[in-house]
Design brief:
The structure holds 2 protein chains of 2 kinds.
Chain A lengths: L18 H6 L16 E7 L5 E7 L1 H4 L4 E5 L10 H4 L11 E2 L5 E7 L2 H10 L1 E6 L27 E3 L2 H6 L3 E9 L11 E6 L7 E3 L14 E3 L2 E5 L4 H11 L7 E4 L15 H12 L4 E5 L2 H7 L6 E9 L5 E13 L10 H6 L4 E11 L12 H19 L3 H7 L17 H12 L11 E3 L2 E13 L7 E8 L2 E5 L9 H13 L6 E4 L16 H20 L8 E5 L5 H4 L3 E13 L5 E11 L6 H20 L5 E2 L4 E2 L17 E6 L23 H13 L16
Parallel strand pairs in A: 1-14, 12-13, 16-17, 21-22, 25-28
Antiparallel strand pairs in A: 1-5, 2-4, 2-6, 3-5, 7-17, 8-15, 9-12, 9-14, 10-11, 15-16, 18-19, 19-24, 20-21, 20-23, 24-25, 26-27
Chain B lengths: L1 E8 L2 E8 L4 H8 L18 E4 L2 E4 L12 E3 L26 H8 L9 H16 L19 H7 L10 H11 L18
Parallel strand pairs in B: 1-5
Antiparallel strand pairs in B: 1-2, 3-4, 3-5
The chains are: A alpha+beta, B alpha+beta.
Protein name (chain A): Xanthine dehydrogenase
Pfam family, one (chain A): MoCoBD_1
GO molecular function, one term (chain A): iron ion binding
Chain lengths: 724, 198
């Protein structure tokens, strides 16, 4: 459904439009936003120190009487939240009861005139608990495992097709292995923060609805009263508003969320978390004064989502030629007791290879753990790690080159839906990557060589991610006069390049140079936009802008009057029902393993991706290599260590939860097939935010096997697992 | 206890009265509205708060403001030739339209995505080039006695590993550092180094 409209800006490496602000540090993130007339107040939360039970008593007197403290909020005085049933979200029921469901949960908060006073006072709050037995350990043999109704976002938990057991029993070659991935933490560099301002009664809040707002119709006098302003660090300002406004008894137009720059999210800012509610509770207690709340790095480990640990049993069966007869992928993972999040770990396996007999299953344990949530490529990141490592093991069993094994099992149609692919070019990605990387054909282990005290090897893995589009985005196009246009859409740039890429898309859609277009994002005063999640941002917002620009031209022509305005929305894509829309990639890694220390160094990585049309090669390459870098980090470094005696993530900081540092990263390169997906949307592009991490850990782990003969089945692949 | 402190920030003399527990980072951000240095961990583990103090890169979250009386502090917003007039840091390439050479290189090579670690990365890089020019070795320097440091890729990566980037822009940061590296090392004599050494 793409058109032949000529493209000038799209496809060119336009530099980030907000780049100057970012290299000087003048781009304002949430905590840096000036709010309110007077000096702001500072909130510092108090967290539970037991993993399960009830707060019997909170001693707050010492905190309340400390110099500079304004108030201490507890469940006794924080005030009720409305409509929690509507929100269906126990994570957001902040300070609504004395129950403790996990260690590191909010039990109180101090509001003070300075951050120093707030932090000191928070340390003076003493809690007595009635403790209950707790369970934090994920075990595959636990009797409490259950099947969720659906897995994120709305997939069936279990699927079965054919006779999997029969195929496994009669297979020439079989792999039956269990993989473990640990608790992982998003850790965007900007900790989760919010500045909240609850207007005082009779305050200066009355103001007209701004042009381009999609707020509901204002009250009868034509003026909307914004009662609450929240400067949030979020992947979706509108999502934060639509979730939080009902909690506080506000109509949508009575709340404004502002979030122009976001210091990374990786899923952890995809939905509001408890700290957003806490900041607003504080602000409601001190109307007229802004309250600033930033989680400490340590606090983010229990309060900003994380990736569940997974136990994944993979069984693959193949005939003597390596053609797969069966694949079974059974996953056990955890969720919290206050909110269910079921990671869709096995879903990628449903469509990846052409085995006629397939089974996938997800089982959950509801534990006294922090609330798990989205982390870059939820589902695919851990699930494809397991599948693609198992494929390498199958290649070993079949004595086949791992690329050849994948070529032999590339399905002509989506095995799950039976639909044709909109474009499955995995084979080309593998072949191009093999050529560029200098891949030497042969089964796993055959590329091994020793150089001094180092074992060198290469690994490959496939990568995939669905092309999601989220319905509901709207945009506004305005001719400002003198051939300059403003395009408004409440989208988010979390480092993804949205400021720039939407400008390119709008410029082409309006047939103007990028300098003639200003895009405004990151504010609920702008038209509704869906969340920057599931790699759906560009694929949802871009076509919305294209459609709006077309309507503008239809209505106003090529020479519009100054001030001419048009709104539009994301058009339906009938092709989405006809085709299986997925991106693919091939990931290659070369490693050197020190024979004495077991240290793994990834000396080269290459990703070749098929993701439809690339809007901006500069920012796209950054996203691809950024995802691959996070995948390397997942393979070798990241491990949230949950102490089952205390329910505490004991390594809750950046010194002991290691994310890849500069010295860990050598040569990481990404390229892509030049293509347009005619079925994805009017731009022909699929999202790219997540596919870079998918498959990267398996490529590294498979390379370590090639080098050492040791199979890494438990992430991260730290030296202790390699020293023999 | 409140203390009155005077220091130079990005070339401008600033005074403020703060709780003596206030870090330089919080003083800059909360008292002086200088939000270029970022708070990523508050524990000296991520580097986002890196500034130049009297020409040397420092983690401002680990410095109490009371220890900075009379200091010359330069943030990423004060590095540019046009906006900063600090004596301690000069743009080695001269006029660059308000941006330091390192900043320009970060733009040219897309050395960032979300931008939150970026001001710290840039200040750190400027300080790092000075350290190398002064002959200070790193963990990967092979000849500790040789004061002529060659900043190859391994040296650059090692010396910049105190600045974490979760977006994973390291490859592009490295490209920016290669491009921004001063052409001829300053080769300053040890006598010109700051008194308190490394």
């Amino acid at each position: 459904m793409t058109t032949g409209a000529r493209s000038r800006a799209v496809g060119t490496p336009v530099a980030r439009v907000e780049g100057h602000a970012k290299v000087t540090g003048t781009a304002r993130y949430a905590y840096e936003q000036p709010a309110g007339a007077g000096p702001p107040l500072y909130a510092h939360p108090v967290l539970s120190t037991v993993p399960h039970g009830r707060v019997r008593a909170l001693e707050t007197m010492a905190a309340r009487t400390l110099d500079g403290v304004v108030t201490v909020l507890t469940p006794d005085n924080a005030g009720q939240l409305d409509d929690l049933r509507g929100a269906q979200d126990g994570e957001l029921a902040v300070l609504q009861s004395n129950e403790v469901a996990f260690r590191g949960q909010f039990i109180a908060v101090v509001v003070a005139e300075s951050p120093e006073a707030a932090q000191q006072a928070a340390g003076l709050v003493e809690a007595d608990y009635d403790e209950l037995p707790h369970h934090t350990e994920l075990r595959g043999d636990s009797g409490d495992l259950y099947t969720p109704e659906r897995v994120n976002p709305a997939f069936a938990p279990d699927t079965v097709e054919g006779d999997v057991d029969g195929a496994l029993d009669s297979a020439e070659h079989m792999v039956d292995v269990t993989y473990l991935t640990p608790m992982e933490h998003n850790n965007p560099m900007e900790p989760h923060a919010a500045v909240a301002l609850w207007e005082a009664e009779g305050g200066p809040a009355d103001r007209p609805i701004p042009a381009g707002s999609d707020a509901e119709r204002p009250s009868s006098d034509g003026v909307a009263t914004v009662r609450l302003t929240l400067y949030a660090s979020t992947q979706g300002a509108h999502t934060v508003r639509s979730t939080l406004a009902p909690l506080f008894g506000l109509r949508k137009e009575e709340m404004r969320v502002v979030s122009p720059h976001v210091g990374g999210g990786f899923g952890s800012k995809g939905m509001p978390h408890a700290h957003d509610v806490l900041a607003v509770l504080c602000a409601r207690a001190v109307p007229g004064r802004a309250v600033k709340l930033a989680l400490t790095r340590q606090q983010t480990f229990s309060l900003a989502g994380h990736r569940t640990p997974t136990l994944q049993r993979l069984r693959l069966a193949a005939d003597s030629t390596g053609r797969m007869a069966a694949v079974a992928h059974e996953v056990t993972e955890h969720t919290s007791t206050v909110k269910e999040f079921a990671e869709q770990t096995a879903c990628g396996t449903r469509m990846m290879y052409a085995a006629p007999n397939r089974r996938t299953a997800h089982r959950l344990a509801a534990l006294n753990v922090p609330v798990p949530s989205w982390m870059r490529a939820p589902g695919e990141a851990p699930g494809i790690f397991a599948l693609e490592t198992a494929m390498d093991e199958l290649a070993s069993a079949c004595e086949l080159d791992p690329i050849e094994l994948r070529l032999r099992n590339d399905p002509p149609l989506d095995p799950e839906s039976g639909k044709p692919w909109s474009g499955r070019r995995l084979v080309e990605c593998l072949r191009q990557g093999a050529r560029r990387f200098g891949w030497q054909e042969g089964p796993p282990g055959s590329r091994r060589r020793r150089e001094g005290d180092q074992l060198v090897g290469m690994g490959v893995a496939a990568s995939t991610y669905p092309c999601y589009t989220s319905p509901g985005s709207r945009a506004l196009v305005r001719h400002d006069g003198t051939e300059h246009y403003t395009v408004r859409i409440g989208a988010a740039d979390i480092g993804t390049g949205t400021w720039t890429t939407l400008t390119q898309i709008a410029a082409d859609a309006l047939d103007r140079p990028v300098e003639a277009v200003t895009v405004e994002i990151g504010d609920t005063d702008l038209p509704h936009a869906t969340v920057a999640g599931g790699s759906s941002g560009m694929a949802s917002w871009g076509p919305t802008i294209v459609a709006t620009a077309r309507r503008f031209r239809t209505e106003h022509g090529q020479q519009p009057a100054a001030g001419a305005v048009m709104t539009g929305e994301l058009p339906d894509n009938p092709d989405a029902e006809q085709f299986a829309l997925h991106s693919f990639g091939a990931q290659f890694a070369e490693v050197r393993v020190d024979v004495d220390t077991g240290e793994v160094r990834v000396t080269r990585m290459l990703g070749v991706f098929s993701a439809g049309r690339i809007i901006n090669p500069r920012t796209a390459r950054s996203q691809f290599i950024g995802g691959m870098t996070m995948g390397l980090s997942m393979a070798l470094h990241e491990h949230g260590v949950l102490d089952h005696r205390t329910g505490h993530v004991v390594n809750h900081d950046l010194a002991s939860y290691h994310i890849a540092a500069h010295a860990d990263i050598a040569d990481v390169e990404a390229e892509w097939l030049e293509e347009t997906d005619p079925h994805a949307n009017t731009m022909g592009s699929r999202g790219i935010g997540e596919i870079g991490i998918v498959g990267a850990p398996a490529a590294v782990v498979n390379a370590v096997y090639d080098a050492t003969g040791i199979r890494g089945r438990s992430l991260p692949l730290t030296p202790d697992k390699l020293v023999r | 206890m409140n203390v009155r402190i005077t220091l130079r920030v990005d070339g401008e003399e600033r005074s403020t009265t703060v709780d003596s527990r206030t870090t330089l980072l919080d003083a800059l951000r909360e008292h002086l509205s200088v939000t270029s240095p970022k708070k990523g961990c508050d524990h000296g583990q991520c580097g986002a708060c890196t500034v130049l103090i009297d020409g040397r890169r420092m983690l401002s979250c680990l410095k109490l403001l009371v220890g900075c009386d009379g200091s010359d502090v330069v943030t990423a917003n004060g590095l540019g030739a046009a906006s900063g007039k600090s004596e301690a840091v000069r743009d080695p390439a001269g006029e660059l339209g308000g941006l330091h050479a390192v900043q320009r290189a970060f733009l040219d090579h897309d050395g960032f995505q979300c931008g939150y670690c970026t001001p710290g990365q840039i200040c750190s890089a400027v300080g790092m080039f000075e350290e190398a020019a002064a002959g200070q070795p790193s963990h990967v320097t092979t000849d500790l006695a040789d004061e002529r440091i060659v900043l190859d890729d391994a040296e650059l990566r090692e010396r910049m590993s105190g600045n974490l980037c979760r977006c994973g822009a390291y490859v592009n940061i490295l490209a920016a550092l290669r491009a921004a590296q001063p052409r001829s090392p300053a080769g300053r004599a040890p006598s010109e180094l700051p008194e308190d050494g490394a």
